[in-house]
């Protein structure tokens, strides 16, 4: 099958489009014919070797952890899905090897849920990683409750844009940081936008003089330090970007594949509670450009790569 792979750590230039190994479908996995795969900052961090301390690479690595597609094969013990089901997945394993930037991916059922029917494959591919992150942080780590005020950083980004919508659904008031050009977008999600950078603390205090009940840091460094100061006594602080959060009495969180959480997110998408904004799509062959753009750190919503099956005459399953 065709896919994107890299055989050493490096910049976007190490990404090559071509033949990659066909996936082996595990006993509790399904074979997914990939329709779309979302780009996440973790993809370029992994490609550059920033995760080498925690994830063993098995080169050549196929990048990508987010997927939407159609089930075309079943592991022998799988009863949860049938051939033809449309699914989404956060297909992360504990090493870097067989990702979603390919025509097919073998996905363990613990990483999958049914695709929300009202979302396109492109939108649906953008939901799993950022949606699970937002859901797990807000519901499990921060335990956001009705009537609380939540500070969400990078509110226009992948994680932030879903976090604003979910926190509103939980009954919270949301203050979201974004550059001026994204303020209407953040308002449209239900958040109260504030500009980040110099003077951030004063701007947030202007909206929440007593401080915020919960802060969701997606940036780290100075943003984390300012956030720690903005959290009211008894408030909670979680970072997904900076382990130093522990020094401020907060918690570091790494998103986990969880089929039940993903099923819930899929439902919330179908109910119209959570939408996914796709700002840009690229054909799979141009994954390097897609990662380059993501690396600029200014994505509104999600960047997605797509597999064009029509161009390949629906390319009848060549694997599985
Ligand atoms: N630990 C985990 O489990 C986990 C999970 C997911 C993501 N992450 C990490 O969390 C971070 C965010 O992920 P993401 O997918 O949401 O990234 P993303 O979609 O690439 O975020 C882009 C957004 O960041 C905003 N931004 C840039 N600098 C900012 C600043 N100083 N303050 C506030 N907003 C700023 C930009 O808004 P403007 O264009 O308006 O500037 C843009 O909308 C990344 O570092 C990612 O690796 C960690």
Q: How would you describe this protein?
A:
The protein is 26% helix and 29% strand. The protein is of the alpha/beta class and 320 residues long. The chain starts with a strand and ends in a 14-residue tail after the last strand. The mean pLDDT is 96. Bound molecules: NADP nicotinamide-adenine-dinucleotide phosphate. Residues 40-42, 130, 133, 153-154, 156-160, 177-179, 182, 196, 218-219, 223, 240-241, 253-255, 294, 297-300 line the site of NADP nicotinamide-adenine-dinucleotide phosphate. The site of NADP nicotinamide-adenine-dinucleotide phosphate has 30 residues, from helix 1, helix 3 and helix 4.
Descriptive labels:
320 residues; alpha/beta; globular; binds NADP nicotinamide-adenine-dinucleotide phosphate
- N-to-C span: 11 Å
Number of helices: 9
General shape: globular
Largest sheet: 7 strands, mixed
Give the rounded overall mean pLDDT: 96
**Residue share in helices?**
25-40%
Low-confidence stretches: none
Beta strands, count: 17
Strand content: 25-35%
- List the helices and strands in order: EEEHEEEEEEHHEHEHEHEHEEHEHE
Radius of gyration: 19 Å
Each distinct ligand: NADP nicotinamide-adenine-dinucleotide phosphate
Structural class: alpha/beta
Furnish the topology, listing elements before pairings.
Layout: E1 2-5, E2 16-19, E3 29-39, H1 41-47, E4 56-62, E5 66-74, E6 86-90, E7 95-98, E8 104-108, E9 112-114, H2 121-125, H3 128-141, E10 149-152, H4 158-169, E11 173-177, H5 183-189, E12 192-194, H6 200-207, E13 212-217, H7 222-230, E14 231-239, E15 251-252, H8 259-270, E16 278-283, H9 287-295, E17 302-306
Parallel strand pairs: 4-7, 10-11, 10-13, 11-12, 13-14, 14-15, 16-17
Antiparallel strand pairs: 1-2, 3-5, 3-8, 3-17, 5-6, 6-9
Bound molecules: NADP nicotinamide-adenine-dinucleotide phosphate.
């Amino acid at each position: 099958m065709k896919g994107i792979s890299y055989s050493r750590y490096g910049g976007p230039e190490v990404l090559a489009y071509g033949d990659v190994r066909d996936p082996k479908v595990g006993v509790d996995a399904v074979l997914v014919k990939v329709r779309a795969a979302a780009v996440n900052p973790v993809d370029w961090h992994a490609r550059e070797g920033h995760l080498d301390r925690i994830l063993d690479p098995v080169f050549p690595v196929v990048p990508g952890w987010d997927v939407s597609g159609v089930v075309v094969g079943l592991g022998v013990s799988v009863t949860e899905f049938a051939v033809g089901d449309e699914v989404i997945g956060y297909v992360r394993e504990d090493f870097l090897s067989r990702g979603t930037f390919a025509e097919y991916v073998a996905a363990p059922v613990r990483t999958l849920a049914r695709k929300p029917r009202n979302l396109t494959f492109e939108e649906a591919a953008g939901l799993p990683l950022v949606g699970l992150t937002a859901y797990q942080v807000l519901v499990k780590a921060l335990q956001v409750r009705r009537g609380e005020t939540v500070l969400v950083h990078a509110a226009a980004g992948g994680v932030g844009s879903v976090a604003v919508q979910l926190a509103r659904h939980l009954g919270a008031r949301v203050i979201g940081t974004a550059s001026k050009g994204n303020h209407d977008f953040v308002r449209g999600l239900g958040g109260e936008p504030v500009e980040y950078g110099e003077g951030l603390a004063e701007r947030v205090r202007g909206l929440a003089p007593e401080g915020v009940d919960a802060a969701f840091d997606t940036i780290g460094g100075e943003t984390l330090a300012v956030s720690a100061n903005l959290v009211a006594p008894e408030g909670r602080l979680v970072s997904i970007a900076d382990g130093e959060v522990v020094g401020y009495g907060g918690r570091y969180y790494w998103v986990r594949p969880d089929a039940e959480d993903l099923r819930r997110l899929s439902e919330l998408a179908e109910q119209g509670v959570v939408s996914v904004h796709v700002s840009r799509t690229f054909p799979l062959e141009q994954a390097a450009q897609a990662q380059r753009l993501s690396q600029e750190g200014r994505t509104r919503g999600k960047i997605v790569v797509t597999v064009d099956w029509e161009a390949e005459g629906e390319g009848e399953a060549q694997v599985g």
